[in-house]
Write a structure and sequence with these properties.
Layout lengths: L1 H33 L13 E4 L2 H4 L4 H13 L4 E5 L17 H11 L4 E9 L12 H16 L4 E7 L6 H16 L3 E7 L8 H7 L8 H8 L4 E5 L8 H19 L4 E7 L15 H12 L10 E6 L6 H10 L4
Parallel strand pairs: 1-2, 1-8, 2-3, 3-4, 4-5, 5-6, 6-7, 7-8
Helix pairs in contact: 1-9, 3-4, 5-6, 8-9, 9-10, 10-11
């Protein structure tokens, strides 16, 4: 009993001190968050939008195409990732799934030729419980074949969102190499969606003891990917953070780290969410377009302007963004 009493007397002050530190850090973040971002940290005219499958899969009138083009142009969207998947187990996409893709790309060339339309190809990898085995050369062959088919339909880029991708995945890098050779030969671009950078650098081994499936990219892997693509979109959401100030600080920190790592090499899109979530990893009151834009602006304010010319925001997603959210994006990011 005496030993337990002594341990308690030692632990109580330590716990009190730890609680004080946590409260102090949270207060400091809240105070920092209240300060307005620099007014000159706004859109560089380089922004992206993940768009719904309907544009590739369903028929639309010319008026609908024109209205969509106007929406993109009015909000300085330079690249639109139009869902053209998902990839099948063999890496291919049945032609019927994108039956109206060519009509869409032709309409976009008529109404908004300055906006780059990319085929958004995604799937869950086997390690995440999905059907896609990137380690199978035949599957990679199928994906590259699909990329070629998408370019033939008039898409001006290929956008991969394959999850989960673990740092050091050589099969993924080989896929990027082969696809970039294809896009480069046809004057198109290659972009890739990656999950947010590891929260605590160099703590991967410790975290994976608790979370065996942990796979967030390291800065080294981000640099490796950037050497094989033209654009990187960071899916900076599903953080699990419960308060706007915490998510905003996370966005700012991710923005600063990503640009510091690859801002001189590729176009960078920082992803912000507009959807409502129901999982423990997402809290829409904290993670939303207003908080995301503000966090990106505060992150940009800590960087040299010369390194941020090709940095923008990617909105996820077109099918969940309300008119009020578009208005907020225009006010906070486009300064309208």
């Amino acid at each position: 009993m005496t030993l337990l009493f002594r341990l308690a007397r030692m632990l109580v002050p330590l716990a009190t001190a730890a609680a004080f530190v946590v409260v102090f850090v949270l207060f400091a973040i809240w105070l920092w968050w209240r300060a307005e971002p620099d007014d000159d940290q706004r859109s560089r005219g380089v922004n992206a939008l993940w768009a719904a499958h309907t544009w590739a899969g369903d028929p639309h009138s010319d008026a609908e195409y024109r209205a969509f083009a106007d929406l993109l142009r009015d909000h300085e969207i330079s690249d639109v990732f139009v869902h053209a998947g998902p990839l099948e187990r063999d890496g291919r996409v049945p032609g019927g799934r994108v039956a109206h893709a060519q009509a869409f790309t032709e309409a976009m060339r008529r109404h908004a030729p300055e906006i780059r339309v990319q085929a958004y190809l995604g799937q869950i990898e086997e390690r995440g419980g999905g059907p896609l085995d990137l380690d199978d050369p035949a599957v990679r062959d199928g994906i590259v074949w699909t990329a070629g088919e998408m370019l033939a339909l008039g898409f001006e880029g290929i956008h991969y969102d394959i999850e989960p991708i673990y740092p050091g995945d050589e099969s993924f890098i080989e896929l990027l190499d082969r696809t970039r050779a294809l896009t480069g030969a046809r004057g198109a671009v290659l972009s890739v969606a990656l999950e947010q950078l590891e929260f605590v650098p160099s703590a991967r081994r410790a975290i994976r003891l608790l979370l065996p499936g942990y796979h967030d990219p390291t800065e080294d892997f981000l640099r490796d990917v950037a050497r094989h693509v033209d654009q990187v979109a960071i899916m900076t959401y599903d953080s699990g953070l419960p308060a706007a100030s915490l998510f905003g600080a996370h966005m700012a920190w991710q923005t600063e780290r990503v640009i510091d790592a690859v801002g001189d090499d590729v176009t960078v899109f920082m992803g912000v969410p507009t959807y409502d979530g129901g999982s423990r990893r997402f809290n829409a009151r904290a993670e939303n377009i207003r908080t995301g834009v503000r966090g990106v602006r505060k992150g940009l304010g800590r960087l040299d302007d010369g390194r941020t010319r090709n940095v923008g925001i990617a909105i996820f997603a077109e099918w969940t963004t309300t008119p009020d959210e578009w208005e907020g994006f225009a006010r906070d990011w486009l300064a309208r």
